[in-house]
What does this fold into?
Amino acid sequence: MNMIVCIKQVMDPETPPASFKIDPQTNKVIPPPGIAPVPDPYSEYALEAALRLKAENSGKITAISLGNDLLRDVVKKSLAMGADELILLEDEAFAGGDSCSTAIALAAAIKKIGEYDIVFCGRQAADWGASQVGSGIAELLGLPCLTLAQKVEATDGKAKVEVVTDDGYEVVETTLPAVITVSNELGEVRYPNIKGILKAKKKEPIIWKPADIGLEASEVGAAGRCTKLVKLFQPVREGEAEIISGDTPEEAAVNLALKLREIKLI
It folds into this structure.
């Protein structure tokens, strides 16, 4: 079974919000100094789903990352975890894209790879959280798409997927090839072992530019955006606090109850 996993490099989602700065002129986030980017956590769930299928069915996993000046220690983590190949769509032209131009580039790269049974993506990215790229790839490739998968099984040219719903999950079956986006309900993601880390250090990624996947620079990245970012800003959060006092805990409790009744919360 041949699988492709789309993995994004993002700013560390654990970074304190106060560390982020925004350039209002360019509508871009200024990376906090001293904080390195990481693989998108949802992308790692997608890779874990592929690794579990590989253990059951054998086959090959190709990881794809898109961007410019990608950090090798970050993108090579997919190799350390168990992916067989790493393709980087890496060029200045790929920078600044939206969900649309990103999906166009990834779909073109997947077409070039040619042989695959499942394309895995994370349910969303930890930075923008749009949840659109996986579905966009499926639309461009003319493939069925199942989203929010928490378990994936594949046999005889079909995949059986547990899809997360508001009140549990439902089991859906699809023919292959297909695009599947994976949710965090999948469970724990494995850590790279020493063997995998050493393998990743030795293996070099394949680099593709826009021309290598049959696209013009005007079709990808910022130039190929389908949407316009009007304003990027940090919301202002303000709060008020009132201290309810009393000479004794009992009196403070009574005063609190009276205040809650006054503002019609009880």
In short: The mean pLDDT is 94. The first strand starts at residue 2 and ends at 6. DSSP finds seven helices and 13 strands in the chain.
